[in-house]
Amino acid sequence: MPARSANWLLLFAASGAAALGGARSAAAEAVALHRTGVQAPRACSADGLCIDVGVALADPGQPDACSTQTSIVADVGDQLAWCYTLTNGSDHTLSWHTLSDSLHGDLFAQLHQDIAPGESWRYIKLEVAGAVVDGDVAASWTASGTRPDYAFDDGVAFDYIDATDGTLLDLAGGFSHARSARVQAPFPVGLFGTRSDVLCVGANGAIQPGSAPCAIPMTYAFPSTYVTSAIAPAWSGYADGVGSVYTKVLGSTPGQRRFVVEWTDLALDWPSMPGFTFEVVIDEASGGYLFQYLSTGSGQGDFGDAGGQAIAGLQADGTTAQTYSSFAPALTPGKAVQWTLQAPADALSTTTSVHADVGAPHLVLPVAQLDAFAASGIVVSQPIVVGNDGNRTLQWSAGEYPASSVAARPLRATPRTAFDASALQRHPAKSAGSSARSPAGVLGTPGLPAYAVQLDTSTGAQDYIGLDLFAPDAANAHVILPDIDLAGMNIAGGDFVDNDFSREWMVDYYYNELYTLDTTDGTKTLVGWPVPQMAQPNEQWWGVAWDPASGALYAVTNATNGWSGLYTIDRQSAVATFVGRIDVGTSTTIADIAIDQSGAMVGLDTLNDTLVAIDKATGQASVVGPLGVDAKFAQGIKFDRATGVLYWTSYDATGAAAVATIDPITGTPTPVAPSGDHRQLFALAIAKAGGDCTQPLDAPWLTLSTAAGTLAQGAPFGVYDVTFDATALAPGDYAASICVFSNDPTRRTRPAIVPVHFNVAPAAGDALFGDGFDG
Predict the structure, then answer these.
(1) The Cα angle at residue 322 between residues 318 and 327, in degrees rounded to 5
(2) The pLDDT of residue 775
(3) Whole-number Cα distances in Å, 263 to 288, 291, 294
């Protein structure tokens, strides 16, 4: 099975419910049109193509409902339903469709669907509003009876561009004879009407746009079933590890740039033949491609020379391609081939717009730290200042952790999911390839220190490791305890407790054990036997998380009927207490849970591939948003409580593994780094403390005159006294932290922390003693 160390971006393809404000490539979007009754269109072009767009808050009971509202007022975190309806008022069938708007970019491009004259078809996009928006959203629908294609011209002047002073690609991805690298293009690259700024560049002389797996082998046919689409100047089977690939950007003005990909000094694998250097130049302005060939083999007419073992052309999909040369000696040195996009003669287009007002409060604390000075017996005060420069009302509270155990969320539209028993499989079958172990050692000073169980799916070996989540590949990790599976450990999940990073608390799903593992030497210390209460048959432990707000240790179970349960586990007795079913209205498999610094819990549902918010008091849950990946087997999620960022050690159905962050408001993941070929990381725990909120009993000398309030949009800053009482304090320095919680979505996972310092000096009568005089 091909390795996928460079395929990590494929995990995060846009889904039908991406975050508002985050435009994605249409090539990644899984969409479908649905026929509806004939509409009375609002906006039609002169040639009869009509479009209507409506937007409203999504109705959880009717996920397919289509609103006719042309404006929306909503808050960040609300789920919105965008409805786009196309009516074909022309005199011929339209088969190829592209929909875009000014907010999302391409929603889909060159989608094939026959729409006869007079028919109306609809596309509904559910998404969680993830950013502030205020303005008109212009939508455009383009349709045609035929697909765009290209014309080529091999008589253009040869003007070769040397890209070796550009960026050298690390072709570490893919497998032997299919080395590839994921590249971020400087502009969206169009191919047969689709667009993507993510390119998979293969060492074998081809480029695949979009978010499909990045491993391009050689091919024996064109179109090729090995890739979804291709830009192929000289696609062949080149010797592994011979030659280099470079990229280079020409120009800096948007709309006028060119992007060069150059393959240099390649050698055919069979027959063995060096001397292949060629390139493709992608033009932003025209959307065209220029293939140029500097050298193409021996130059002696030998078998394989001049493209005799190569394909040159453009592929739209697995069934459609345009070929310039196929295993023929037509790619001679000095040749240039220009490809120009030909728009269909019958292409029609129409536009309309709706208005979106999506807002959020924004907490501002202009006084970042409180410093006070007083003599013993004296009371002084300092102001804490709270402001709101957002466009919605701010609700804030300061001091203790909030009583709410879950961020307030409306129910969201959730499709019913049939339970798939394979979702309960913790680990994949063994696969080819192996992740190299690193020798035991001490984790130094990484960017984000973490600990986890590492599973090499090629051998089945499980190790307890330390790693840096910013550089999570196996070569940078160190093994603390190897072969824990052979030692009889069947770890389901784990977390650190009380900011003690010397040991991770683990739950064993096979023996129902609670134990700790020493993060230095892996020493196991048994605590007890937390047994699930079998609220459902065949419950087994999965994820574990510590709650910094209450101090409780939480764990989840999953059963064989699509049922997930929430428990607390007593860290003294190991007794497990059932809280309730994690219920989102459909079957679930909660692979892991995480709790932020404010005490809000989220879970990773691998059955539905969503992030869910969970009420710690009841287990009731709601969907946050889709992950955009077919997540499989054991996973890990935990908050970096110092920053409020949620991290995910992901593993998908193809064996691709990566570290990503997840937006806790929308569920949208963002890749951080690949984590290795067929390598699962679970029982994740991040070794970084969050800022503690001082409780009143811990600092009786500190009092807030006002501990909560609201600030409307545009309201003046609120100024509130904080009292420092040195009446009962001995001379010295005192410190505390005031946590300010709010409904600011950027602060949902972590309160704003205001450090407090209080210097208490000796009273006037104690001055001699304060100077060290002791009589």
Answers:
(1) 90
(2) 39
(3) 19, 11, 10
* Cα dihedral sign, 725-728-729-735: negative
Average pLDDT estimate for 618-644: 89
Domains of the chain: 8-146 (2.60.40), 150-342 (no CATH), 360-400+693-768 (2.60.40.10), 446-686 (2.120.10.30)
Distance of alpha carbon 406 from alpha carbon 553, whole angstroms: 16
> Does 411 have pLDDT greater than 80?
no
Is 475 exposed, middle or buried (CB count within 10 Å of its CB: 0-12, 13-18, 19+)? exposed
Whether the pTM exceeds 0.90: the reply is no
Phi and psi torsions of 474, nearest 5°: -60, -30
pLDDT at residue number 426: 63
Nearest of 594, 579, 585 to residue 562 by alpha carbon: 585
Q: Give the β-pairing of 462-468 and 732-742.
A: unpaired
Range 715-738 average pLDDT: 93
- The CA distance from 297 to 45, in Å, is 53
User: pLDDT by residue (tens digit) across 666-688?
Assistant: 888 988 888 876 789 999 999 98
Q: What is the 3-state secondary structure (H, E, C) of 660-710?
A: EEECCCCCCEEEEEECCCCEEEEEEEECCCCCCCCCHHHCCCEEECCCEEE
Q: What is the largest CA-CA distance in the chain?
A: 108
Q: Is 300 helix (H, G, I), strand (E, B) or coil?
A: coil
Q: What is the mean pLDDT of residues 762-771?
A: 59
Mean pLDDT in the chain?
A: 85
- For 140, other C-beta atoms within 10 Å of its C-beta total 15
Alpha-carbon distance of 250 to 161, in angstroms, equals 10
pLDDT value at 143 more than 80? yes
DSSP state of 58: -
pLDDT in tens, 430-471: 544 434 433 333 334 458 899 999 998 778 889 999 999 998
In terms of DSSP bridges, do strands 167-168 and 120-128 run parallel, antiparallel, or are they unpaired?
unpaired
Ramachandran class of 653: left when φ > 0, alpha when ψ lies in -120 to 50, beta otherwise: alpha
